């Protein structure tokens, strides 16, 4: 007979979460928080493993935050897999899962929003107006409710992590932000809950995002650093893979997100591409480590 790991304690009420975490910290535990929208995959679980390794207790939040989806985006069909998620967290030994309802998070009359400045404006900020306002607001709420010592984010959403860091710094939020590398499928596709939308043909074509980033890295390693040339290389690979609608291919400074004309210093290459109906993002850092 196999024995199952106990499920994490599921907390729906923010005030209960606050008390539970405060009690853990009062007893001397360092608490890590991993904010997620659920449909957990190995990318999320890598953040959970880091939290469990580096902290004494780990809280995972699962909340599909309506405020970060635009009106024509995929909020309604975003994958939800509550029971499987809790099983996965149990297997890793997570103690606490915060799984609130929308009505608890956004109470009637909610009218305060967090607007982060310049790092939230280009790239995803331009393609998805209001997205980072929704992200920053929910993450600040989670930080306030959980009162964790450390919070974990993935490099897959590089700009999101930068926006959160900016908010934490600007609003003096007492939490340490740690960013972990992107976890990929064997063919290089960055793991994402949205990959579930891809049909088999689209799934095969989706590997071109990572392939194009690798080709860009090779060009730079060979001494070709001109941004326009690198962008064309990426574009060719994406287009050759079949139907791919390119939203942006950007070479930017990894801290300011200002455009760079050459990848001759620290550079973030960020992509957003639509394959069929599915919008995918990916990125790589050149001449820099994730901060
Ligand atoms: P999400 O559920 O998509 O909001 O993601 C929750 C957290 O997991 C965010 O910090 C993401 O950046 C991170 N994450 C998502 N996919 C990956 C991945 N493939 N590798 C590492 N982290 C990821």
How would you describe the overall organization of this protein?
By secondary structure, this protein is an alpha/beta fold. The longest helix is centred in the C-terminal third of the chain and has 22 residues, at 200-221. It is built from 9 helices and 9 strands. A hairpin with a 2-residue loop joins strand 8 (267-275) and strand 9. The chain is 38% helix and 19% strand. The mean pLDDT is 97. The termini are far apart. The strands form 2 sheets. Strands 1-4-3-2-5-6 form a 6-stranded parallel beta sheet, sandwiched between helices. Strands 7-8-9 form a 3-stranded antiparallel beta sheet, covered by helices on one side. It folds into 2 domains: 9-180, 3-Layer(aba) Sandwich (Rossmann fold), CATH 3.40.50; 193-285, Pantoate--beta-alanine Ligase, Chain: A,domain 2 (2-Layer Sandwich), CATH 3.30.1300. The structure holds adenosine monophosphate (AMP). Adenosine monophosphate (AMP) binds next to helix 2 and strand 5.
Shape: globular
Order of helices and strands: EHEHEHEHHHEHEHHEEE
Radius of gyration: 19 Å
Percentage of residues in strands: 15-25%
Taking strands numbered 1, 2, ... along the chain, how are they ordered across the largest sheet?
1-4-3-2-5-6
Please mark out the parts with pLDDT under 50 across 5 or more consecutive residues, or reply none: none
Distance between the termini: 45 Å
> What's the architecture of the largest domain, going by CATH?
3-Layer(aba) Sandwich
CATH class of the largest domain: Alpha Beta
Number of helices: 9
User: From the helix content, strand content and strand pairing, which structural class follows?
Assistant: alpha/beta
Determine the fraction of residues in helical runs and give it as a percent range: 25-40%
Give the cofactors and ligands.
adenosine monophosphate
Q: Please tell me the total number of domains.
A: 2
Question: Describe the biggest sheet?
Answer: 6 strands, parallel
How many runs of DSSP E, i.e. beta strands? 9
CATH superfamily of the largest domain: HUPs
Q: What's the CATH topology name of the largest domain? A: Rossmann fold
* Rounded average pLDDT: 97
